[in-house]
Amino acid sequence: MTKVLNGIAASDGIAAAKAYMLVQPDLSFEEKTIDNPDAEIERLSAAVETSKQELEVIKQKATENLGAEEAQVFEAHLTILSDPELFGQINDKIKNDKVNAEAALKSVTDMFIQMFEAMEDNAYMQERAGDIRDVTKRVMGHLLGVSIPNPALINEEVVIVAHDLTPSDTAQLDRNFVKGFITDIGGRTSHSAIMSRTLEIPAVVGSGNATSEISEGQMVIIDGLDGQALVEPTDEELDDYKARAKAFADQKAEWKLLK
Does the keyword Transferase apply (predicted)? Predict the structure, then answer.
């Protein structure tokens, strides 16, 4: 029986493909007391430098695929990685508390994230909280030697299923292969939703339970017009949605001619 998931229509369009579960890595760690703070600071510095190099590549790809304005989010990420106040506090925590780089990074960035998220009437600061979270995940991955998912490596037609998509994830999506996506959380104004509209990838966000209700390889229809996803649809439903997708594509082509 077809399973229907409801969410927020984030990017217009209809797509059908097999599910690709974009699983986030395990970034758990053990807090340790260290004897050589300078060595920990050097570890952190190396992780930050590698993250900067990766983000430069992602920013370039985003500029080519999305345009300079949308790629500005990665300039913000690079600015965070060069923020002397943020990393000054992290380095001080390593020195003063004699803790490993992972513990210091999480403690200080969590503090900034909570502070920015508390500014509920300031959308800009709320976005900065998300940027810090994204950047922290990348640096933490390098500290732990854990690979961060790379959507750019997808080379077959899929619908991405994820708890959330970071700006870095979305900027690497190749619309030749990624036909649509659905996430557990997010809204129409999130970075990933905005980028999906720029890339013209049908998307449903804020479904609440996509990652627990969909399994790798299942057929999924993404209805970015009504904010729904159909899991393991019948042949009749697939045919119906293919017809709707064609009608939408034809209408869109007419709109472009009228511009």
Answer: yes
Residue 84 to residues 41, 80, 108, 171, 176, Cα–Cα distance (Å):
14, 9, 13, 27, 40
Structure-model confidence comparison of residues 14 and 246, the more confident one: 14
Candidates 171, 230, 235, 231; CA nearest to 201 is 171
Give the amino acid at 38. D
Q: Report, as an integer, the average pLDDT of 91-105.
A: 98
pLDDT in tens, 30-52: 999 999 999 999 999 999 999 99
Neighbouring-strand partners of residue 106: none
Element (H, E) at 246: helix 235-258
- Domain extent listing, the chain: 3-23+151-258, 37-144
What's the CA dihedral at 211, 216, 217, 219 to 10 degrees?
-10
Q: Is the pTM of this model over 0.85?
A: no
Report the sign of the C-alpha dihedral through residues 195, 201, 207, 208, in that order: negative
Q: What is the CATH number of domain 37-144?
A: 1.10.274.10
Domain 3-23+151-258 in CATH 3.50.30.10? The answer is: yes
Residue 256 has pLDDT above 80, yes or no: no
* Residue 110 near residue 27 (C-beta atoms within 8 A): no
Can you point out the beta strands (E) in the chain?
3-6, 8-11, 14-21, 158-162, 178-183, 203-205, 219-223, 228-231
